[in-house]
Fold this sequence. Notes:
This protein is of the alpha+beta class. About 55% of the residues lie in helices and about 20% in strands. The strands form 4 sheets. Strands 5, 6, 7, 8, 9, 10, 11 and 12 form an 8-stranded antiparallel sheet that branches. It has a 7-stranded mixed sheet with strand order 13-25-24-23-14-21-22, sandwiched between helices. Strands 15-20-19-18-17-16 form a 6-stranded antiparallel sheet, with helices on both faces. Helix 3 (about 80-120) packs antiparallel against helix 4 (about 130-150). The longest helix has about 45 residues, at about 80-120. It starts with a strand and ends with a helix. Residues about 70-80 have low confidence and may be disordered. Adenosine-5'-diphosphate binds near residues 448, 450, 485 and 490.
Amino acid sequence: MINKKYKIKGMHCASCAGVIERTFKKIDGVSFVEVNYTTEGVKILFDETKIKINELSEKIEPLGYSLVFSGSDENSSSVVDMDQSKKEKILELKDMKNKLISVIPLALISVFIMSWDILASYNKIPEMSYTVKEFFHHLLPVMATYTLFVVGKPYLLGFYRFVRYGKANMDTLIGMGTIAAFIYSFIVSSFEDLLKPFLNVESTYFDVTIVVIAFITLGKYLEFRSKIKTGDAIEKLLNLGAKTAFIICDGKEIEVSVNEVNHGDLIIVKPGTKIPVDGIVTEGYSYVDESMITGEPVPTEKKIGDLVIAGTLNTNGSFIFSATKVGSETLLAQIIKMVEEAQGSKAPIQALADKISAIFVPIVLVISFISLGSWLVIGSSSLGFSQALSYGLMSFVGVLVIACPCALGLATPTAIIVGVGKGAKEGILIKDAATLEKLYKVDTVIVDKTGTITVGKPKLVDIVNLSKNTEDKIISIIAALENKSEHPISRAIIDYSKENKIEILNVSDFYNIEGKGLKGLVNNIEYFVGNIKLIQDLNIDFNYSLIEKYTLQGKTPVILATRKEVMGFVMVADEIKKESKQAVEDLHNLGIKVVMVTGDDKKTADYIASLVGIDSVIAHVLPKDKLEKVKELQQQGRIVAMAGDGVNDAPALAQADVGIAMGTGTDVAIESAGITLLNGDISKLVKAIKLSKMTMHGIKQNLFWAFIYNIIGIPVAAGLLFPIWGIVLNPIFAGLAMAFSSVSVVGNSLRLKTKKL
Ligand code: ADP
Ligand code: MG
């Protein structure tokens, strides 16, 4: 089984996606297919021993589609791909525009003649003179022939494929309608004398063919133009990347293409230039504008040891950094990949629209024939055959044209694409459409303390020595163990030791005691470093009230003990992020319960929580129990989002309805999270929730408008209003409504872009 992604060429309506999906699903060896009309991509899982990829493409080629193979599999760079498809799209748009320009005058002439006829029939204006009438009489068929066979070619092909392969899509509906109007008119005007006794040969429908195709072409053109715009977030991200880098080679600066940068290359960044790859500053000092990636408006200070990100912009300083991530590994490349995937993914809410569009086309075909038949059968007796046929034909064409489920197919994906893109711009990375659909329903947010509410860079602030050793000796033992740990606490201790030139001893038999601390041998003596829990486990005498004074101030204890006694402890304190308090308040205002879950001391956690306004704290939680806490809340019927940053949060993030990784955290957390807040700013969570609400609202509006056109349009077009008000819908209005529905749906999605979060 192999899982591949390809681009599909030739789709021009949302029901095409359904036709392709169904065709692939029927093939032996194919176990999963997902076609996305808006991004023109297909994800397919198939057994290579049963079917080759070119055979798959051959299956859809007769239907007018094909798979694009070059450079579009999972591993290749999507950059080339995007450029290519963008160019193709621009060409396609140009072609559509040319056709549109050629057909608009024809449509205007048709409407002019039609209006004249109507006004004249009400005696508002004089009849056309005979010569003029004859002139138009002969001009219309010529214009209609051009319109149908040149501009309307996709619809003719849609009809042809229906006849040949029995596959109907939206083009089939339009094709069938306009062809019917054309053929009827052609026959009537060719055999005028012969048919005069039976039919009203005066009225032909060449104008219907012309105007309907013109409207639909206009609608498609506008739709396509906006559709390109919905996806421009990716393009903006792609443009962030630098093309070249200056690397230092044998003491000289040389300019190379970014693709040629290797791990460990030293790169020099000059004032005002872009950072080409990810890396760590080794020399120099500057401020870097990271707003394009993280959404953080204030430039970030960069000194030796700090991380720099590809695509961000250096301000005035100059520095040298060592490349750590290049090519597809850079954060920017990952973001592009993630945004692309999210935009191409299907929201669960779309399933309904998909189901409906799938059965829509055949149902509409049936309805159109039924309405034609009913007019002939029921109408003939009261109106006469000739009039009934002409109304019947109008209904037939009207139903086919108005019923196109085009807007239905655009409703969800266009909004998702805009929503995901808007998020990316703010530093909110959304993994897939399903996450975006779920987020606004969240009623409980679990936050980790360290790194989520607090900055995650604790500092050593107090030392209490309970032994006969010197203070420095205590620190050097603690530092020995912490040197092996990756917990944020360890940085505080190591930094302190270095600043005060305290020797960091060697450690052996090091062991990490999950959620409690560390143990190891230093100079052959076994030591433990950790929290109260750890000391309690050791069952040694300790006056816990000694540390209470500190924990009540929100400081975290790090206790040093042997198996027999506590030797002393240090206190570390972490700053609260400046945006935490406001974020908690905003979440509360949205009616969301905020729970802090931490492995830290209860009193420490309570204090921090009280400062930011969190009322519910669960402390002393072991990493594996964070998962249980999430489950517990879910069992109470709550929809839980969990925000965390550590490696040990990953299982809980994955269990939560929506996992939120704080971007300062590790790659692991990002992968198991549905949403990543790139600069680790918890207030972005509030924005993300608003974005989700906004996007879902947009989708629901879109679906409403798409449905309402069809629900009202079909019966009206079929002629159900005729018995009541004597109204028969001219198919021209069906064409107008159809064009308008797609355009209004895409336009509504685009509106999301400009809304404030
Ligand atoms: P959290 O991410 O909430 O801090 P952890 O499970 O990572 O949760 O840690 C829980 C607690 O265990 C910490 O608050 C600390 O008291 C103790 N601990 C963990 N690692 C260390 C360490 N390297 N040094 C000292 N204490 C530690
Ligand atoms: Mg942690």
